[in-house]
TrEMBL record:
This is Proteasome subunit beta. It catalyses: Cleavage of peptide bonds with very broad specificity. The keyword GTP-binding does not apply. Signal peptide: none annotated. Keywords: Cytoplasm, Hydrolase, Immunity, Nucleus, Protease, Proteasome, Threonine protease, Zymogen. GO terms for biological process: cellular response to lipopolysaccharide; immune system process; proteolysis involved in protein catabolic process. The proteasome is a multicatalytic proteinase complex which is characterized by its ability to cleave peptides with Arg, Phe, Tyr, Leu, and Glu adjacent to the leaving group at neutral or slightly basic pH. The proteasome has an ATP-dependent proteolytic activity. This subunit is involved in antigen processing to generate class I binding peptides.
Length: 216
């Protein structure tokens, strides 16, 4: 308790010490995230889905302040719906990423959030964009959150261009499992979304179903 105002964790900003990842494959993209939300040293939500839809075939992975990241995703989701209606077709992934980038940059002093935007469109197929403080860059894969620092070596060694959907899903799940094992702020279950021309598939992998490695 602090100053009679209630438990200290109630006054702390809720942030997602997290691990997020997105990867392009031959025909689409796969996104993944852990599910733990913490406020300081306290876990306040064990099963938050940090993969938020921006449109039918465009998702974003959230990290940073949970409230800030969710607010950006909701604003962009609304703006994309309006944009899609105006042009009479589904929006491009780059358009979604640009909207996220613009909001993140405009309010960079007020917001603490990093979103990875990924999806599929008819013009450019599967795409992954990193957006951070005005940055907008397309990458074959992107990782973020506190858990990412533990797995850079793994993803650099294991990623291959032209992977299949199944290989990309395995790559994402292995990356999340390693990060969740090493990073105390990441954990819970793994959320996975695979997007291609024909479908958007969401999966949840429970903690006891995640792959294990030699030190586990």
């Amino acid at each position: 308790m602090s100053g009679g105002t209630g438990p200290e964790w109630l006054s702390q900003e809720v942030k997602t010490g997290t691990t997020i990842i997105a990867v392009e494959y031959n025909g689409g993209v796969v996104l993944g995230s852990d599910s733990r939300v913490s406020a300081g040293a306290t876990v306040v939500n064990r099963v938050m889905n940090k993969l938020s839809p921006l449109h039918d075939k465009i998702y974003c992975a959230l990290s940073g302040s949970a409230a800030d990241a969710q607010t950006i995703a909701e604003i962009v989701n609304y703006q994309l719906d309006v944009h899609s209606t105006e042009i009479g077709e589904d929006p491009q992934v780059r358009s979604a990423a640009t909207l996220v980038r613009n909001i993140s940059y405009k309010y960079k002093e007020e917001l603490s959030a990093h979103l990875i935007v990924a999806g599929w469109d008819r013009r450019d197929g599967g795409q992954v964009f990193a957006t951070l403080n005005g940055l907008l860059t397309r990458q074959p894969f992107a990782i973020g959150g506190s858990g990412s620092s533990y797995v850079y070596g793994f993803v650099d060694a294991e990623y291959r261009r032209g992977m299949s959907k199944e290989e990309s899903q395995k790559f994402v799940v292995n990356t999340l499992s390693l990060a969740m094992n090493r990073d105390g702020s990441s954990g819970g279950v793994a959320y996975i979304v695979a997007i291609d021309e024909h479908s958007t598939e969401e999966r949840v992998i429970l903690g006891n179903e995640l792959p294990t490695f030699f030190d586990q």
